[in-house]
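Chapter summary example: a protein plus zinc ion.
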Amino acid sequence: MQESTTGDAFLNIWHHAMFIGAIIFAVIAIIIYLFHQVKVSGVKDFKQKYDYIRQNEIRTYQICFISLGITVACLINTYGKDSLSFDWVWFMVRLFISLAGGVLVGYIAALVLKYYYPTRLYKKLKKWRYMPRVNPATGNTMRLLSEAEEDVHLDEGMQAEENVFSVDYDVWVDEKTKETKIEKYPGHLEALQCNNCGFYTMKVVREEIVTAPTQDTEGELIKYYECQYCGSVRATQFQIARSNDAADLLAALNKTGSEEGIDLINIEIIDSTGQKRTYNFQSVEQAQKFLNEYNS
Ligand SMILES: [Zn+2]
């Protein structure tokens, strides 16, 4: 009798705690979600909005879903709270089911964010990237130049960078005053859109050197892509720069400077025997230092 009373008292406190926990974590999820939306709408510059969404949105939603998972686990722990007296087995079984329920919510959320959400995210990002810019000085609407037109406004370094690092430059021009606004977008390290399923889940799985570059001729490289979602494959051919192009690369890097927004610089060196070595650098400085030494 004594044990049962202690058990019931414990159960009462437990249910109470779980109930409060469920409310707290649900509120946390809602606050984080709303905070993100407010933050996004507070960023006025479209390019900055793009960057902010790209860097934060998925991570923010992950945290929201983890909070919701905890909410679900807490709620399951309150199941049958008024009709049951304390029993260890029942308590542990329910505890286990609640953990499984919470993990399930987290797992489903992870799948959604990994496969389904990037497509939505890219659409959203596209919207902000191509939303007509307004020249703050004149109030005129600017026009986005096409790839062919923009080269005039990009210096050689920028053009090389577009080719070498898969960086995209967008050039906006105010037709009346001829003022330009140049925006830089990352093109690499991101998954491509799959032609089959439409998700942005196409990633490089293998690379093959068909012809190795020499001092005088360019080489040929085939990249094999596989969709991480539906498994469809595709291959694309790339040129490998001549082996004495380290100086050109260096020029491109010098242009890039130590700008923010560069996560990784990946340099692949393929020698005349087809041996490939890959070097990753965290900063432009490191890569410059490396290329300087390689050049000499
Ligand atoms: Zn696919």
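Key point: The mean pLDDT is 82.
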